[in-house]
Design a protein that fits this description.
Oligomer: single chain
Radius of gyration: 17 Å
Strand order of the largest sheet: 1-2
Strand content: under 5%
Shape: globular
Number of helices: 9
Order of helices and strands: EHHHHHHHHHE
Number of strands: 2
Helix content: over 70%
Structural class: mainly alpha
């Protein structure tokens, strides 16, 4: 499932555009498959979609889905982190992508996020998942622990995106084919 790209246009793309150019066809295909897969469970559809991706696409897709939600606000960072931790395969995919992109700092930070959530007895599966954004207002200790991690997440994000973009630039065959 590698989209086609003109080599000359690719070479002229600024580094800042690479992850969005490579992510856009992935999310479109994901949404199409989830809409079309009424006969199979969404979990099975997600697994099939993910299997069809290259290793680079898997890392990009996993991290971007998490990141684009988590970066929106403190509450979104908390909720989406809890949601992903409650889905071990998704969490592992995010961490594996960060490993492939050689981003040890973000890996370590997200490891701390998981540790805090587990320490505060957050679910590690979607069975009975009832985490709400409002919990941060009710639990001062949780808010403090997650708050410092959120600050670090926002500070680390530009470096992580740079690493992903650099990886894409140096491994284009994992994200697209050239039509010339």
């Amino acid at each position: 499932m590698l989209p086609k790209q003109n080599r000359n246009e690719w070479d002229l793309l600024p580094l800042e555009k690479l992850e969005s150019v490579c992510f856009a066809p992935l999310i479109e295909e994901y949404k199409r498959r989830m809409t079309d897969s009424s006969s199979i469970s969404s979990s099975d559809g997600m697994k099939a979609f993910f299997r069809d991706l290259t290793k680079g696409q898997q890392g990009l897709f996993s991290f971007q889905v998490y990141f684009l939600h988590a970066i929106q606000s403190f509450e979104e960072f908390y909720w989406w982190s809890a949601y992903f931790v409650a889905q071990p395969q998704r969490w592992r995919a995010v961490m594996a992508g960060l490993h492939d992109f050689e981003d040890e700092e973000m890996q370590a930070l997200l490891g701390e996020v998981k540790s805090i959530l587990v320490a505060f007895h957050h679910p590690t599966s979607l069975d009975g998942f009832q985490v709400t954004r409002e919990e941060l207002g009710r639990n001062v200790k949780l808010r403090g622990a997650i708050g410092s991690l959120h600050d670090r997440f926002r500070q680390q994000a530009p470096s992580t995106l740079f690493r992903i973009r650099t990886y894409i630039r140096t491994h284009p065959h994992e994200f697209l084919t050239f039509d010339d």
